[in-house]
Amino acid sequence: MNIRTILAASLMLCIIIGGVAITPSIAQTASITGKVLSEGQPIEHAHIAIIDTKLRASADSTGKFKIQNISAGTYKVRASYVGFSRGEKQITVRDGANTVVNFELTDLTKNLNEVVVSSTLKEISRAESVVPVEVYNQSFFKKNPTSTIFEALQNVNGVRPQLNCSVCNSGDIHINGLEGPYTMVLIDGMPIVSGLATTYGLSGIPSSLIERVEIVKGPASSLYGSEAVAGVVNVITKKPQNAPCFSADVFGTTWQEWNGDFAFKSNVSKKTTALTGINYFKYDHIVDNDHDGFTDVTLQDRISVFQKWNFERKNNRLFSVVGRFFYEDRWGGDTRWTPAYRGGDQIYGESIYTKRWETFGSYQLPTRENLIASFSYNKHDQDSRYGNQSYIADQQVVFGQLRWDRQIGRHDLLAGTSLRYTYYTDNTPATEAGSDSEVRLAETWLPGVFVQDDIALTDKHKLLLGFRYDNNSTHGNIYTPRVGYKWVINDRNSLRLNAGTGYRVVSLFTEEHKALTGSQKVVIEGDLKPEESYNVNLNYLKKIYTNGGASIGLDATVFYTHFKNKIISDPESEQGKIIFKNGPNYSISRGVSANVDVAFNNGFKVILGATMLDAFDIDEKGDKVVPYKTERFSGTWSLSYKIRKADLTIDYTGNVYSPMRLQRLNDLDPRRAESPWWSIQNIQLTYGGFKNIEIYGGVKNLLDWLPS
């Protein structure tokens, strides 16, 4: 036997030890491959690690990775990247096999990359905007389901929906302590909600139609004109092409409130898509917990039908048309009241019938230049009875706008012209010589032009210059300039400084609704001039990413607003009268607001907000007077935790407000002169374990707080 035979035989030799045969073998190793994606897009350079080992890999430009030389066993694999949630999976690796592991990470900076339109009238990245814009998507409002956008805004920092009448539940939206008439509410950028609609129309915007809400705090009159003094709330409705074929959201409460939202999409043709939404809300349960013989909550029965059409055109040019009808029947007052007593003086009740028709749309002209024509029309019919007083009004608003934008070097130019016509007639007694039978007619024309230049000075410095000119048929020429500056310190820190002016023309019914609900008489001293405001605000934005995969966002703003010609309602100087006049001096609203947004890798999210406010009027004597219903401090929070294994989400939301000065009829009025601290808190559980179905339930107003 030669030596080669001996070596070969030795390799195959079985060694018998204690009757057990042991065969020597060569250990085999395994591998792990996969992709790291976010919403279908690869995350290049994502870091992949096998926990408690030194095995690592990095994703390539397509998101793919590979880890080799792994022994058989059970491991935890982690994928992470700055600005994204961290993903972990447990896998079992078999000897010699390849195991595929894919990761889907959440972009924690997505809210900064969102496209917004409210700051410049055209689509722009939120991160690039010189004007700070707060964006709240539908998931934010799902944490505390409500039937209207009016209620949905209660947990937005610095924004407070306020009910101004405990009997009929008329309301408005305050921004940074400024009253509702100073807030402009838009739907898809169109001034649909104004005049009468700011009193009763806000409850007619169902939250089911919302894709997102953009909020700009501070004057925006250089783009939007009158009413945009405190800020802008722009409700962006869903796009038909992105909506599901059918959706339904139904909820009820122990107070016997019932709300149903239904939406369905129709592909009318290859290039035409329509989205139809129907909202119905009913509350007809009389509650009188304080036993005063009056309803504690206004009874409401309303329906809103919405339809949005989107037309595909060459070169992706824009063409969309929206229509909506809204009807509401609400009443409050003596619990014995029935419709048979409507308008009489036997049993007091406030009964309001509201009908609204709205249509608006946008059309991009087939030209080489980017020209977009927008239009809106709304008609508001209101038939109201406040005891035996009647308020019957008809308001029609027609609005048209043509805007052009173009990028020329470092200049992003925007220019346009608009025309707004308002027709208004009513039988209100809200004039010194008025009577129930008197009919008042007002027609207002408001043509205007605006121009804006967004200048990229350098990669880190931007300057925004804007100017608007309006000619009000009643008040003449009005000029509203603004300037903004943005400094990107680095990819995680930025500063924005904005200054501008605003103006507003008074609307008596919106201004002082209680003038029609009691026996007080409205007196106007002199010609009411438009209010003027001057505002400056400094915004700081910071992003922090921890090694543990958490994302922390800080958004803080210091603001200052000076009012001139502020319209003051004085119900105290003369018994039985409410006097409207331009303030002789000035008013100030200043403060600081901050939001903190924290997203942890384990599914826990925290949103905290707080606003400190110092608002006051200077009276004829030069003394400071704090306005009614203006808080010095407000706070909001939203805590969410998703238990992934159980597919269960827990949401805890709430707000808190400091005492406010309250209005009384006279010194003998037994009601409080100042409100207490108060807080509304809610908790909700949402189960998403079913395909295409979510089930949620919870408790609203956990502390059972009610106004005394």
Tally of individual helices = 7
What is the helix fraction of residues, given as a range? Answer: under 10%
Shape: globular
What would you report as the Rg, rounded to the nearest angstrom?
31 Å
Enumerate the spans where pLDDT stays under 50 for 5 or more consecutive residues: 1-26, 430-439
Count all strands and give the number.
45
Classify the secondary structure makeup into a structural class.
mainly beta
Task: Determine the strand fraction and express it as a percent band.
Answer: over 45%
Average pLDDT over all residues: 83
Biggest β-sheet description: 22 strands, antiparallel
- Give the termini separation: 110 Å
Brief overview, please?
The protein has 708 residues and is mainly β. It contains seven helices and 45 strands. The strands form eight sheets. It has a 22-stranded antiparallel beta sheet that branches.
Would you give an account of this structure?
- This protein is mostly beta strands and about 700 residues long.
- Helix content is about 5%, strand content about 55%.
- The chain has a 22-stranded antiparallel sheet that branches. Strands 3, 4, 7, 10 and 11 form a five-stranded mixed sheet that branches. Strands 14-19-20-17-18 form a five-stranded mixed sheet.
- Strand 40 and strand 41 form a beta hairpin.
- The longest helix has 9 residues, at about 5-10.
- The radius of gyration is 31 Å and the shape is globular.
- About 35% of the residues are buried.
- Residues about 1-25 and about 430-440 have low confidence and may be disordered.
